[in-house]
Amino acid sequence: MARFSFRILGCLLCALSCGVVTWSAERVVDLTTADGVKIKASYFAAAKPGPGVLLLHQCNRQRKIWDGLAQQLAAAGINVLTVDYRGFGESGGDPFDKLPPQQAAQTQAEKWPGDIDTALQYLESQPGVNRDVIGVGGASCGVNNSIQAARRHTEVKSLVLLSGNTDLKGRQFLRESSKLPIFFAVADDDEFPPSVVAIEWLYSLAADPDKKFVHVATGGHGADMFKAHPEMRGEIVDWYVTTLIKTPGRAPGARETVAVPKEVRVLDQLDQPGGAAKVGKTLEEARKHDPGAKLFPEDIVNFMGYEHLQAQDNKGAIEILKLNAEAYPNSPNVYDSLSDAYFADGQRALARENAKKALELLASDTTDPEDRRNGIKGSAEEKLKQLGEAPQKQ
């Protein structure tokens, strides 16, 4: 478990009390995306030429959550841009929380990358910004957005990732990026528990040994951790100063070895070709000693299954989601997801069987919240309708 450096916080407080630090004035700007949507952003200029950092918010907040960190980074000589995604905060576009799930996923996949590129172009065009030395930071859904931005832009020399996950391509990018220092952080009391294992997994995948992992007991999700741990902002400032100003693209003093749980190794095995069969055998052996053994988190493996569906690897998705159903036989959601995979693969009888199984389990489901149960019910019933069968009355 990494310890915080209070030296940085102490120096900052001293400078503030002596009147040495001058906070950068926030400049609110409007950016126009490729399809004409107005995106609201805030720019915090450093007092002298230096690198730039783009900060991407989590999907249950908006750009203002970064204000304190942005001010500290600007005072340390780093130009910062924060941005509201389309549909969030003051940005245009359809309100994201009102979009149907399929449209929301399509917006993230098809619109956000271009929007983020527009924000990066603005940041790099500002006077005094070294466009060849850029950092990106993100929380929750901003983690994947940050990693994908680094995939698209070689000028990104440093990342900060808080409480989130990434997709197949993002994970492979981390495995191959031997010269990309990354700061990771998560809290054990995260309101979205899979975030803890997810960030531990990403840390284990990152190929660059110049990486840092801050793991705290309390603090919540993403940038919300700053409320309980204001010193974390100082850690991040120090990280960007090191990796963007002192030794661009390197953090030689950050090398450390942090133990990760067994679940992480299982997820990594599952992420490889033929991994589902191997993990299935391990689960079978584990259940000879412990009938309730799980080995991996349901939500992350469910997400992995849908990644394979999106990549048109229907067979791979089926194997992963079948394994999830074996591990969590009482979960309505795993059967609804498996039904989706069979449906995509044209196996209509199995799609029908698993959709019905999901509905049967919903009748006695006391674990999932009501909105999740309603979502599963609607999904399963819609598939049965498409399969030409009237849904069962509950």
Question: Secondary-structure map with pairings?
Answer:
Elements: H1 6-17, E1 26-32, E2 38-44, E3 50-56, H2 67-75, E4 79-83, H3 101-110, H4 112-125, E5 129-139, H5 141-152, E6 156-162, H6 168-176, E7 182-187, H7 194-205, E8 211-216, H8 225-228, H9 231-246, H10 262-270, H11 275-289, H12 298-310, H13 314-327, H14 332-344, H15 348-362, H16 370-386
Parallel strand pairs: 3-4, 3-5, 5-6, 6-7, 7-8
Antiparallel strand pairs: 1-2, 2-4
Quickly count the helices.
Answer: 16
Strand percentage: 5-15%
Adjacency order of strands in the biggest sheet: 1-2-4-3-5-6-7-8
Proper CATH architecture of the largest domain: 3-Layer(aba) Sandwich
Give the oligomeric state of the chains in this entry, treating copies of one chain as homo and distinct chains as hetero.
single chain
Order of helices and strands: HEEEHEHHEHEHEHEHHHHHHHHH
CATH topology of the largest domain: Rossmann fold
Contiguous runs where pLDDT drops below 50 for at least 5 residues: 1-21
Any overview of this molecule?
The chain is of the alpha/beta class and 394 residues long. The protein has two domains: 6-246, Rossmann fold (3-Layer(aba) Sandwich), CATH 3.40.50.1820; 262-386, Serine Threonine Protein Phosphatase 5, Tetratricopeptide repeat (Alpha Horseshoe), CATH 1.25.40. It has 16 helices and eight strands. The chain has helices at residues 6-17, 67-75, 101-110, 112-125, 141-152, 168-176, 194-205, 225-228, 231-246, 262-270, 275-289, 298-310, 314-327, 332-344, 348-362, 370-386, and strands at residues 26-32, 38-44, 50-56, 79-83, 129-139, 156-162, 182-187, 211-216. It has an eight-stranded mixed sheet with strand order 1-2-4-3-5-6-7-8, with helices on both faces. β1 and β2 form a beta hairpin. α10 (262-270) runs antiparallel to α11. It is globular, with a radius of gyration of 22 Å. It starts with 5 loop residues before the first helix and ends in an 8-residue tail after the last helix. 44% of the residues are buried. Residues 1-21 have low confidence and may be disordered.
